[in-house]
Amino acid sequence: MNFQEYCELTQDQQKVNAEKTLLFTFTNSKDEEFSLSPEKIYSFLVFAIDNYHLIQDAWENAPSKKTYLHQYEEKSYRAIFKTASTPDLKIISSTGSSQTKALTLLISKLLGYLTDSEYSTPEENTYFQKDSMELAIKNWNKLDAPHAKKISSPDRGNIKELFRQWLLDKGLAPKSATSYSETAIKFNDKYLAEIGIQESSLYDLGPDEVLSALEGLTKIDSWANVDKTGKGMYTTACKKLAEFLAENALQIFIHLPKPFLLLAGISGTGKTRFVREQARYGAYKLVAVRPDWHEPSDLLGYETRLTGHGAPEYVSTEVLKFIAAAWKELVDAGFELEVGEQDEATSLRVSGEQDALSRVRPHWLCLDEMNLAPVEQYFSDYLSVVETRKWYKENGSFIYSCDALLDSGKLNVGGDKLKNELGLEAPQYTELWQLFLEAGLPVPFNLIVAGTVNMDETTHGFSRKVIDRAISFDFGEFFPNDFDAFFDDEETGKKQPVKLSFPLFSHTEGATDAAKESRSFLKAVNEKLKGSPFELAFRALNELLLMVESFNGEVSDRIKLQAVWDDFLMMKLLPRIEGDADKVGDILDSLEDLLSSELSDIWNGDKVRPDLWRKPDGNIACRSKRKIKMMKKKLSGGFTSFWP
């Protein structure tokens, strides 16, 4: 007997639909439907076992409680559910506030089923005893649903499920939500190539593009006939998907593996314009780097005693104000902020539901002509702190933390004057300012730093410390200028950069087949670098796997996976390699020989791999093959490097 059948044997009027792996849908006394994932109930039970003393205290403090805790009474059980107020249990606590009886019925039945007990009524036994809950956790595999289903991030990787959840929130029945989000979309996808759309699914399009696709679909007789027979189901699915995408804007971004970009290329190629265009979907700040910058205070401000009143003050900067603005965005989005201990360090933590991340705007800080000054000197604080970012995700919730970029001591010196300069004087930001004073000001997760750089005799080069912490774009290779499109807007629009947003991970989470293949690839590459200063470490492996996750790399799609590897080499490995023939000659030859095998599906030909960073998707030649060939040619002059 499964859980669905167990519920049907009970004598109450509640209807329960136990869908495999996704949701429990249940009704209240008014026959209204509510949905809750099995993972949330599992997390609540673990919480209740570990914090049973809190459950007992909440129950005992309710004046109308029954004789025993396991006997249902509305106010006492509302208090029990409210103890589950941690970010990942907010759904339980909020549902328990409004639908206490319905939620208790559902959980009690589940506990009865998992403990092989005969269920009667919650007034008689809710099974909220500690031993019953422990037995239920032990027998959890008896359910068809896993307790740790991962919804990793609000992006293209899980958009179908988010669309389905959105439909449920709009009041659709579970069966209808599944039909629209799965069956109807799959049917429509079969016709996309016929109407000239290169993407394989409507889920890869934006809201306007979905409506445009619908216009094309209606002109296909076979599609229109099926849509008519299905009473407009396929039309409705398109319209609802477009509404969902417009409301959430989930599908339009590729989430970067790192929040620090280096855009390198000759002057006039459009590097600064690239950042400004990306920031159309967020916030933008341009800061021109000065040649005399040699310490972090040029970016983050400094303490001075040269004041009229003799007391010290903190002099802020435009960069510091912009970072504060990014933090204000997180407060406005409704995330919870608190100071906590992690790895024996005090840090400011942000927590909330992963779905809400899609509504946070990226804040693009453009450091123009970044290497006019030595980056390792004035940017040293950021280079260190950016590596301390940590994401923790579970059951649709997240916690983000990062060490302080500016310590609390300096902020305390600034006082109310600095608070006002940073735009934190409004009452809604009072708590944020107090947290800064306690734990310092960290790097917010929605901040992206993009440095534009020219590699010529007037600028400083980059150490491997900088390259290791950045995503380096050889701008001419990734976003080449097309002179033929200069007077042709239509041609210009045919090849636009994908829209980028802030990272959603700091460390890779899944040991997928693609991750294992990528690890083997990097081990083979590192073997050729052994004993040289160019050898890669764990950070490089983590960032390769993050890049694979960003582009949903899969073993089944060898060409796409090898395209990710190709771009990784261009961003993280080849920029490290420079020197004379004695230092790099054999390495370039060895890499070329290895990659001709490891990248065999994309190594030869002009249009052999997808261009992951521009749209619409088109095929290009292998980037690293061309770059290695160029570097070997430069080596004939006695010295070579990655940069043009």
List strands and helices in order, with pairings.
Blueprint: H1 3-8, E1 16-18, E2 24-27, E3 33-36, H2 38-50, H3 52-60, H4 74-82, H5 90-98, H6 100-114, H7 130-138, H8 159-169, H9 174-189, H10 207-217, H11 221-229, H12 233-248, E4 253-255, E5 260-264, H13 271-278, E6 283-288, H14 297-300, E7 302-304, E8 313-315, H15 318-332, E9 336-342, E10 345-353, E11 363-368, H16 375-378, H17 380-385, E12 390-394, E13 397-402, E14 404-406, H18 408-421, H19 430-439, E15 441-442, E16 447-453, H20 464-468, E17 471-474, H21 475-478, H22 489-492, E18 496-497, E19 499-501, H23 513-529, H24 538-550, H25 558-573, E20 578-579, H26 581-598, E21 609-610, E22 614-615, E23 619-620, H27 623-635, E24 640-641
Parallel strand pairs: 4-19, 5-16, 5-17, 6-11, 11-16
Antiparallel strand pairs: 1-2, 2-3, 7-8, 9-10, 10-13, 12-13, 14-15, 18-22, 20-24, 21-23
Question: How large a portion of the residues is in β-strands, by DSSP E?
Answer: 5-15%
- Categorize the overall geometry: globular
Largest sheet: 5 strands, parallel
Helix share bin = 40-55%
Q: SS-based structural class?
A: alpha/beta
Cα-based radius of gyration, to the nearest Å:
28 Å
Please report the total strand number as a whole number: 24
Strand order of the largest sheet: 6-11-16-5-17
Low-confidence stretches at least 5 residues in length (pLDDT < 50)?
145-157
